[in-house]
Amino acid sequence: MFNDKIIAEIEKWKPSSSFSYGTAGFRARANLLPPVVFRCGILAAARALSVPCVCVGLMITASHNPPEDNGVKLIEPNGSMLNENWEIIASRLINSHNPKEVLEELCIQENISLVLDNKSSPRPAVYIGHDTRSSSEPLARIVESAVELIGLKCKCFGTVTTPQLHYFVKVANEEGLQANKENYFQRLSIGWDTLSQYAFGSSTLQEDKIVRIVDCANGVGAEAMANLIAYTNMQNVYCVNTGNGELNQFCGADFIQKNAVFPNVSSDGFDLNSISSDASVHFCSLDGDADRLVYFIPVEQGITCWKSLSGQRVRVLEGDRMSVLAALVIKKLLDVLQVKISIGVIQTAYANGASTAFLKNLGKPVQVECVPTGVKHLEKAAKKYDIGIYWEANGHGTILFAENTVSLLRETIEQNSAEQTKKAALCLLALSSIANQATGDGICNFILAEALLKFMGWQHLASWESLYDDLPNCYKALNVRHKELIKTTDQERTLLSPESVSKVIKRFSDSKPSYRFLVRPSGTEDVVRLYGEGPSVDELNDMMKELEIAVLQACGSSDHK
């Protein structure tokens, strides 16, 4: 199954800390990661050998985390996140003081051999990508050495966004296409061109008056955005924070979404003063590896320089609003198409209640489904529908089109002579080309959002924002000693224990039924997360304070051990 040389090499790479594989893979300070990424390279090779495939993926990134951090995540042959069973194997292998035992069990369980003979052909490969952190390229080279130890080939794409690598793996396995950046951007360009031809022709928008400014978080998204602009010939797109500043430092999607303030902007040769006073400005932010995107509107209007904007309050158009916009446009197109296609909009209990109400009021065929927190739950539920829409509040999400849906759209285009019906099918097909079918993708979602806004004829972001008013809400993360005491049910919407906390929530719901409160334990930290929403900010804050006290009393504050 494997030889002593493999075991000897793995035993050299012993992690100095304990790690647990989560949704984002393994993350830590970069100096702690060499042993982790080496063993992950071994695991990636094993995963590639365990199923018939062209390749699996391995990405070196820590997304929106500080530049001194880094991480590693594995990508399944279908482009999705690592299988849950393999997450457990990953944690065992990385932490094991006896890797030989773990590998023996793995080889027996998966019926694989990590020593390949000359008859083992064709051999799968491991696709590797990394972000722009200084530690990323050296860590990627460590992965290559591990994969080559098993006898598999690596294909290193260098600096790429995380969603690009997911896409490369998916199309290589499922479509047999040459996986590269050119193919990725060509699809986006074709989708944008199709919509420009069939969906935007009657638009009254003054395109030259729309200015799009993208905060690239000083990360890998800067290069991707430059390529996107070149391939699509999209006008009036300007990128800031393209690498002159520090990665994710007071900028990027995560910073905007959590703090609701305008990002700091490093000098990138773009002058805000050059924008016409009558222009409509679309501000948005990517995160460090470009898998998230949020839009935002400065609260104070008429400010004309970056320095005065930095730190100013903004209104954030986050993931809930992306789901609503996508569902609204797709329903309009399906109303023209008149075919039986199911649309599922997948949310967690933490989606703002106003967005849920808006989606339910859209009516059939739109269905709203609530799932537990986590991308893997959202993605799994979305795949049950002909068209599945999902976004997290942080700006990570996409629209998934089932294969039978794409086939139906193509048949409609070929067989239907009615011009409006054919146009609607072409537009939906274009959206399926733009939306990343493997994972949430900030670059794709930028084109997607601009296309949807243009389809609706909305020049200003305020038109999008005005679809509904968010209910006032409050979020807190409490450091506790015993998060395991928190038990929930009904997709985390109902608290089972501790009883003292559930009694507080029940009292709130009985006396103030227009408010709702959620309590859940973090999956990776010693933290309990609280969320509340309701019509009055003052009342909500008072109730949240009482709930916070109840949780700390029940679970023990880690600040008072």
TrEMBL record:
- Family named by the database record: Belongs to the phosphohexose mutase family.
Protein name (Swiss-Prot/TrEMBL): phosphoacetylglucosamine mutase
- Domain Alpha-D-phosphohexomutase C-terminal as annotated: residue spans: 516-547
Q: Which residues does the UniProt record annotate as the domain Alpha-D-phosphohexomutase alpha/beta/alpha?
A: 56-86, 115-171
What pathway is this protein a component of? Answer: Nucleotide-sugar biosynthesis; UDP-N-acetyl-alpha-D-glucosamine biosynthesis; N-acetyl-alpha-D-glucosamine 1-phosphate from alpha-D-glucosamine 6-phosphate (route I): step 2/2
Q: Which InterPro entries match?
A: A-D-PHexomutase_a/b/a-I, A-D-PHexomutase_a/b/a-I/II/III, A-D-PHexomutase_C, A-D-PHexomutase_C_sf, A-D-PHexomutase_CS, AMG1_III
Q: Which cofactor does it need?
A: Mg(2+)
What does UniProt give as the signal peptide span? Answer: none
Q: Which GO terms describe its molecular function?
A: magnesium ion binding; phosphoacetylglucosamine mutase activity
The processes (GO biological process) annotated in the record are: carbohydrate metabolic process; UDP-N-acetylglucosamine biosynthetic process
Q: What class of enzyme is it?
A: isomerase
Entry-linked PROSITE patterns:
PGM_PMM (PS00710)
Keywords, ordered alphabetically: Isomerase, Magnesium, Metal-binding
Spell out the reaction equation it catalyses. Answer: N-acetyl-alpha-D-glucosamine 1-phosphate = N-acetyl-D-glucosamine 6-phosphate
UniProt-listed Enzyme Commission number(s):
5.4.2.3
Which residue range or ranges hold the Phosphoacetylglucosamine mutase AMG1 domain? Answer: 318-458
